[in-house]
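Format notes (please read before filing issues)

Several people have asked whether sequences and structure tokens are stored in separate files. They are not. Every record keeps both together, in the order shown below: the sequence lines, then the token lines. Line labels are part of the format and must not be stripped during preprocessing.
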Amino acid sequence: MNSKPLITVVVPSYNQGRFLECNLESIFAQDIPVEVFVIDGGSDDCSLEIIKKYEHKLAGWRSHPDNGQSAAINEGVKLGTAPYVCWLNSDDFFYPNGLKALLLKLEAAPLSPFAYGRCWTTDSLGRQLAKYLTLPFIPYLFANYCFICQPGTLIRRSSWEQNEGLNEQLQMAMDYDLWWRLFKSSGKPIYIDHIVAATRTHNDAKTLNNIDVHYLESKKLVRRYWGRLPLKWYLSLPLMKIIRRIEKISYRK
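Then the structure lines:
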């Protein structure tokens, strides 16, 4: 950790202290020099206890109300200096050497704006439920489905800054928007066929509880960046709502 950091990792956090220690341990277990900023929105659970426990390893942290997840991530990235950046939501985690695999792939492709790998979807205890459907980058398929799982991504800082980071007006699809903008401005990302991280699904997960907002934002983005809305977007929302209801019932058990 005394080496010059290669990656700025931002952890946006709010009242998910039960997951935060696993999140931070997974970052510090990566075999590469990182600088980690925890940007907490004023949690009133055990989050501050966890943050203070790891304070000696963090490059910085704060805890107070803010303007939401996107603004918090942008704030954290600006605090860093490393040539590569990413964020890891406080309920997600990296697998061993996952971040290193992304770094090596992106370093070998200096013209690509970011790299992404494969992820598991896990439950609240980190038990693997299903592999997130991840594909090599094909724009038409991307207009139908966001097959890039955000925890499994690493971005070149120069590309992040060129695109001014996340759109703070978006609440749910800010990552989908960013992938489109990076592609449009700097070309295709690099895909790595390797499991690098996990996205945790549970009763308090944003994507589980805000499907209508997520779909509305995503549809607007597809129209903006692809020019038209594929048929899929008209057909899949009712099915997804049924799936989310089943998931919420199962998580109460």
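For reference, the curators noted about this record: The longest helix spans residues 232-251. The mean pLDDT is 91.
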